[in-house]
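All the exercises in this workshop are built on plain-text protein records. A record pairs a protein's sequence with a compact description of its fold. Read left to right, the backbone structure tokens trace the chain's path through space. Once this layout is familiar, the rest of the handout is easier to follow. Here is such a record, shown just as it appears in the course material:
>
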Amino acid sequence: MDTIKSADHSRKSLPDFVIIGKITRPHGVRGTLRVEPITDDPQRYNLLSQIYIHSNKGPRTLYTIENVQTVNRYILLNLQDINTRNDAEAFRGCYIEIPRQECIPLPEGEHYYFELIGFSVISNQGKEIGELQDVYSYPANDVYVVKNNEKEILIPAVDEFIDHVDYKTGTITINPIEGLLD
């Protein structure tokens, strides 16, 4: 029986910036950006005065927010110095980020996904399952993507399967029902 060694989670580094949206396209002719929010609370954009825009093509750049509107499931952003449709077009596909320190504090027992990536996943019998690589969000529930040397395991992030999340040791203890790990 494989047992997990004591994890030194203090070495895990959290990201400096957190993605909260993706620019999908320009909106109109005055430089407005149409943003798909990547956050549980799209209204958080109303609390921001500045955001960073980041793409794989260039450095992360700070912009001042001039106006925020919510339309259906999208956010419309007007930023200082982005005044035309052509200006806005240059940001298609870029990500909107904020410094990690600006994340809204969560209630006790709740966590952001980025805080869990890299955690060791073990069974409630002490067997090492793998490392949390990603979290998929679905309407019914979230799913943890756990990888070990052999395969990828999908674990529903519901109380029936998740026993405990230990931030000090960087471990997630699961209750694997029969067939979950096969």
Observations:
- The radius of gyration is 20 Å.
- The mean pLDDT is 86.
- The CA atoms of residues 34 and 76 lie 5 Å apart.
